[in-house]
Amino acid sequence: MSLIPEEHLKSKSNFNFAPMIDFLFLMLAFFATLAVSRASLYDTKLNLVQLQTEKGAYPIQPSDESHQINISITDTGDYQWMTEIQAYPMENLQRIQKELNYQHQIGLLPKDKHQTQILLHIDRNASWDPVAKLIFAIREAGFEAFPVYEPEEIVTTDEK
Fold first, then answer.
1. pLDDT by residue (tens digit) across 114-154?
2. Is 70 exposed, middle or buried (0-12, 13-18, 19+ CB in 10 A)?
C-alpha cells in the first residue's frame, strides 16, 4: 500500500494547447496589422505630376467642369492655401478640411468632388509626415490630392 494513489503516479497523456493558441493569436494580430498599414500607406493611389513653367502647358489641364486648388507645404511643415494673388497660411489640417467643405457647400467648387483637383506644392526639404497627413486629410474630406513637382531650372551661362 502506497501513500500516493497509483493514478497520480502515471504520466498524463494530455497536451497543453494554450501556448500554441497564444502564438497563433499573436501571429494573426501581427499580419492583420501589417496588412492594414500596407493598405493605408503603400497602396494609396498617388500620381506625381510635373508642373511646367511658362515654356509649356500644364500637364493637368482643368476642364470646363473642374477646378484646381493649390496648397503648398513649406520646409518647416506649414501649410499655405495659394491663390493667384496671395498665399494664405493655414494653421492646421482641420482648417484646410473646413475650407474645402465650406467652398464646396457654397458652390465655389464643383458638386462632384472628383472634379476638384487639389495640387500639392511640396518643398524639396519638407519631411514626409506633414505631406502624408495632408493627403489623408484631403481624402477624408472626399477630394483627391495630386502632388506636383517643378523641375529644377537649368542655369545657362547667359543667365549668370
1. 888 888 888 888 888 888 888 888 888 888 888 886 666 55
2. middle
Distances (CA, A) of 94 to 41, 55, 79, 85: 21, 36, 11, 23
Distance CA 4, CA 20 (A): 32
How many beta carbons lie within 10 A of that of residue 101, not counting itself? 15
Cell digits of residue 67: 477646378
Ordered DSSP codes for 14-83: ----HHHHHHHHHHHHHHHHHHHHHHHHTS-----EEPP-TTS--SS---TT-EEEEEEE-TTS-EEEE-
Closest CA to 130 of 149, 115, 147: 147
**What pLDDT score was predicted for residue 131?**
86
What are the backbone angles phi and psi of residue 66, rounded to the nearest 5°?
-100, 170
**Mean per-residue pLDDT of the chain:** 76
In one-letter notation, the amino acid at residue 76 is T
Find how far residue 101's CA is from the centre of its chain: 19
Give the predicted TM-score (pTM) of the model. Answer: 0.57
